[in-house]
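[Discussion] Sanity-checking designs against the backbone

I'm trying to build intuition for which residues belong where. Below is a structure token string of 85 positions. I'd appreciate it if someone posts a full sequence so I can compare it with mine line by line.
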């Protein structure tokens, strides 16, 4: 019976260790510099900078949400994307 408990304990510990996510690699200085220059194209609060002529979109829980079916496109203003690059 002790062997069964030991085997179960070993399996539980192994499964826990194998299920852990590896640490991401550290970012290089050039990657950090590029990230620092980035500007978001969506602020999570408004549709400023987005073109929704039919009022088919809204912001819900910090994300863009369609107000109906078949509204899969919401274009952005061109200058907004140029600023984000």
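Best answer:
Here's mine. Compare freely.
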């Amino acid at each position: 019976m002790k062997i069964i408990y030991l085997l179960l304990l070993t399996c539980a510990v192994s499964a826990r260790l194998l299920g852990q996510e590896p640490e991401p690699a550290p970012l290089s200085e050039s990657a950090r510099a590029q990230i620092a220059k980035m500007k978001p194209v969506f602020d999570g609060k408004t549709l400023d900078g987005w073109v929704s002529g039919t009022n088919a979109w809204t912001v819900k829980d910090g994300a863009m949400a369609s107000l109906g079916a078949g509204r899969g496109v919401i274009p952005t203003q061109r200058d907004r994307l140029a600023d984000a690059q």
